[in-house]
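If you are new to this repository, start here. Below is one unmodified record pulled from the training split, so you can see the exact layout before writing a loader.
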Amino acid sequence: MGAGIAEVGARAGLDVILVESTTQAATSARSRIDTSLQRAEAKGKLGQGETAHQVLDRICRGHGSRRPGGS
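And here is the target side for that same chain:
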């Protein structure tokens, strides 16, 4: 679900930090987003003149076990 939220934010023009519990999970999420964006670009469903690569560049990935709020 986090990958989908990150994609929506990036497609809306926001810079997004995608945080997953492991590096592997973060890499997998970014790969799923890339695939989805490539399909959207092929169907002409991205913003006018925008490429999948431009949208993907708005997503910074990370990993960690800390939750917001310091717990």
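Two things worth knowing about this chain: The helical segments are 2-11, 23-42, 52-56. The radius of gyration is 13 Å.
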